[in-house]
Each structure stands twice: as C-alpha cells, then as structure tokens.
Amino acid sequence: MANTSAPSNPTQLKRTLKARHLMMISLGGSIGTGIFLASGGAIHNAGPGGALLAYSAVGIMVYFLMTSLAEMAAFMPVAGSFKEYANRFVDPAFGFAIGWNYWYNWAITIAAELAAVVLIMKFWFPDSPSFIWSAIALVIMFGFNYMSVKGFGEAEFWFALIKVITVILFIVTGFLMILGIMGGEAVGFTNFTMEDAPFNGGFFAILGVFMAAGFSFQGTELLGVAAGESEEPEKNIPKAISTVFWRILLFYILAIFVIGMILPYTDERLLSDAVTVSPFTLVFERAGFAFAASVMNAIILTSVLSAGNSGMYASTRMLWDLARDGKAPKFLGKLDRRGVPVNALIATALVGSLAFLTTFFGDGAVYIWLLNASGMAGFVTWVGIAISHYRFRRAYIAQGRDLNQLPYRASWFPIGPLLALILCIFIILGQNFQAFTGEGIDWNGVLVSYIGLPLFLIVWLVYKVKHKTKLIPLKECDFKQS
Hints:
The protein is mainly alpha-helical. The chain has one domain: Amino acid/polyamine transporter I (Up-down Bundle). It is built from 18 helices and no strands. It has helices at 19-30, 33-36, 38-75, 82-89, 92-124, 130-146, 149-178, 190-193, 202-217, 222-226, 233-262, 279-286, 292-324, 342-357, 365-398, 415-429, 443-450, 452-467. The longest helix is centred in the first third of the chain and has 38 residues, at 38-75. The protein is globular, with a radius of gyration of 22 Å.
C-alpha cells in the first residue's frame, strides 16, 4: 500500500492547478468524439439547421448549469464538488447518491475509452491483439493520474490543446472552402437549402439530436471537481467556466455550420462512426489535405486518451472524497505524501478495467447496459447541480448573507437553474423516446436506456431510509468553507 504519511497536512489535496490547467481540463472533457464523429449523424438526421438548433438549445442549458456550478465552486472549492453541495444544501442521502452516481459515470467512461482505443488502433494495425492497446492506454491514463496533480493537469493541457488547434484549423479551412479560396468553387448556401434543408425529419429528428447533444457537452462540469486542487479558486473557477463555455459553444456551433455548408446532409457517410468518413476527415480531404484520415485518427486517439485521463481523475477524486466523508471504505480516503489518492485511483482503474473486460463476453450486452447506465448518470449529475444551486442561493439569502460577498454570482437566478433542471429532466425522460413511438412499447429498449435512473433512485432511497435523513431546512444549511 502507498505510503500515506506526509510532512504536513497529508489529509488535504494540494492546490497546484493553474487557470490554464482548469480551462483545458474542461475543454478536454467536452471536445471529443461528440464533435469529431457524432456531429455528422446529427446533421444527417435533422439537417444542418436542426443540428444547429438542437446544439444551441443544449448549449444554453449547459451555460446555466456551469454558472450555477461556478457560484458554488468559487465560494466552496472542494474535490467532492456536487456531492458536497447536495450533501449540505439538499439532503445527505441525495449527496450520497450523487457522489456514487458521478464516480460510476466516469469509472465506466474509462471502460468506454479503453474500448475506443482498440477500434482506433485497429485502423493502423487491423490484425493486432485488442488487449495490447487497451492495456497500454490504461497504463498511460493511470500513469498521468499517479503523478502529482500538476503532472495530470499538464498532460491534460497538451491533450486538450491538440483538440482545440484541430477544431480551429477545421473551422478556418471550412470558411476558406465556403468562400471558394480552397477546395474549388465556393459552395455558398446550396447545402442549407437543398431538398428538406435546413430542417429534416421534423420535430422528432431534432429531438433525437437534442438528446445526443447533451452527451457531447458532458465533461464541462469537471471544473467543479478540479476546484479542490486549484490555485485561487475564487478567481480562477469563474474565469475558466465562463470562457470555456463560450469556446465550447462556438466550437460546436461553428463546426456544425461548416460541415452543414460543405457536405450535403443527404450524404450517407455522415451516419458512419468510422474515422475514415468522419465529417472532419471528409472536409479536410475535400480541401486537398493528404492523409486526412490518418491524421484525424491520431487526433481522435489523443481525444480518447484525454477523456479517459479526465475520467480517471474525476472518479478518483470523488471516490476519495466519499471515503473521507465516511461514505466509502476508509482506506480509499488516504493520500500519499505527494497528495495523490493512490488507493482510490487503483480501485477506480480496476473497476474501469473489469467493465471493459465485459466487451469480450457474449455479444457485449453487459457492456452496453453499463454504458447506458453511465450515460444517464451524467445527466443525473447535472440535475443535482441545478437543484443544489437553487437551494444554495435560497439558503444564502435565508441566513441573511450578503450576495455581494459571493466571489462569483450566477446571473438569471432563479430562471437559470430552474430552466436547466427542466431541460435536464426532459433529456433524461426522452433518452429513448423511439421506444414509445412504435406500434408497441419496446421494453428491452426502455430497460437498456433507462436502467441508470432506477439505480440512482434505489441508492438514494436506501440511504435515506437507513439513515433517516431529511431535506435540510434553508436556515440550517452549512456554509463552512472547511
């Protein structure tokens, strides 16, 4: 077992993450396969206008969620983040369930990224054994997280920077092609007005993209977890959240606009998840860049490693905080002398590895169930953020505190968190609306898509009944910043 003694204060994480690390951690968590691969399917199904509308609507929701998180994280920067806020301002049982829900969300995401690495490497080495690539990826992710938190932040900074540069180059190249400066004649708005464009498939097609867009933006909340190890969180957290949101929104909106302008939404290749026909690859190839598929495959590889790296960080910190709070085995709450929760890191890596191994059994049904439960867990976390912030602000006022003393104040309260809450619940309930629109209800589809919801409710209610917890009165909410 790791040596957990330290010369001073070994029970606290070290605040060594800088503002640039925070910004790139959040960017790295949300710019990934959602923009590089899934954006093509969104445009094909709903048309370029439908995809833009859906992503913009989800972007507004995420803006309110992130400003809510910024207000709480700037005032109370802790590694437990959403778990701690739910614990103090809603109900200890709700905090318990949110904490385990978030840990599970990212632990299973590690498994998903290990599976994705195998598919990416098969592009170059089609006959190689799968386990070699997943093992190498796991060692890389574990290694970055085993280093000091500053080492993790530095690795994530460069991973995310590669993605940001790629998206910027793509947008610039795309606009040059639209104007006819690159890739032949100017395309103009032809693809935005062809056939049923800009909207295709009607309301349900846009609704489907709306659901998928929510997954693309997941990861922006990583800043809340990183707050516990950041320098000057009262300044850096609000700054990072506000700038990151606008950058992510612009990246997604401009990238989808470029794809919709250059590629007709009727192109069947947009439906494929293969890197060779990624919308980014197709646009770069049309612009005349040789080896576009290989370059995009390498970039998507860094994107996957970045997501797994961030996932391992977030889930490890949440598990450590749960243990420190007596809501997970005590040995998981120990730090080594560098301030790294090694025991929680090992446990998280093992769970992610075991989940990944289920892809090799049968038809992978167990893995699909795990992955669907994980996807639902991300939205449940967002619901927790919205509820916690609404209660946080009301309790702050009820206790006679001065709003001007908050390091950062979210605008549009209470409309912001309430609108985000309603949209999150709408996304959760509409995860697989197709299962209800056929001749009969697809019960298997319902179970696979919604399994995460009853799991969360069971964990919440069992803890609530066992410990007899109640909704905390506003005047009794704990604002201590320890």
